[in-house]
Amino acid sequence: MTIHVVLADDQELVRAGLRMVIDTTPDVEVVGEAATGAQAVRLARELRPEVVVMDIRMPGMDGIEATQMITADSPATGVVILTTYDTDSNVYAALRAGAGGFLVKDMALDDILTAVHVVAAGDALIAPGVTRRLIAQFAGRSEPAPVPELDRITAREREVLTLVGRGMSNAELAAHLHISAGTAKTHVANLLAKLDARDRVQLVILAHQSGLVAPTR
């Protein structure tokens, strides 16, 4: 299946660099480009791409607001935030808006292409440095915050959530629990549904927030 991508960045040079890499990849195709958040929302509605690669700082509507509108309008469209400004406020705002990926522009273009594939598959990917900061926020808490939604899940699903919180992929889950990859994927899908989580990023946050994953000090 071809992954259709919309590029949203007010810098034409950035869009050109991304398009150059994507055009050399057989299963990914750029179907539209936007220089503003409003244009990105319009193109996402018209073209229904699998992924939008979104800058944060753009004229008029910024990438956070555009992401929120796109994910609310089309849950099947994943958004990869690609920004120079990886501040904590931007990270949390992007995740709350429903972004499935958060990357910084100094990453290799191949890493960005990997994120497109990951998010198109319904998974999530955050730049390693950003992930460390995200987890550190929870590691610094003295007490876990209550998460009532955990009452909805089974003991097995709680075990899976703990492993997801430690960063395991579906393949790693399957190997660790001695189950098939399909069963691991089903457990994760059930967690997403029961916990009203959009993607694995939110599952990781819940696992740390609830104390299922002990903080490292």
TrEMBL record:
The lineage of its organism: Bacteria, Bacillati, Actinomycetota, Actinomycetes, Streptosporangiales. Gene3D superfamilies: 3.40.50.2300. It comes from the Bacteria. Residues 146-211 form the HTH luxR-type domain. Keywords: DNA-binding, Phosphoprotein, Transcription, Transcription regulation. Residues 4-120 form the Response regulatory domain. PANTHER family: TRANSCRIPTIONAL REGULATORY PROTEIN NARL-RELATED (PTHR43214:SF24), TWO-COMPONENT RESPONSE REGULATOR (PTHR43214). CDD domains: LuxR_C_like, REC_NarL-like. It comes from Actinoallomurus oryzae. The modification 4-aspartylphosphate is found at residue 55. The keyword DNA-binding applies. This is Response regulator transcription factor.
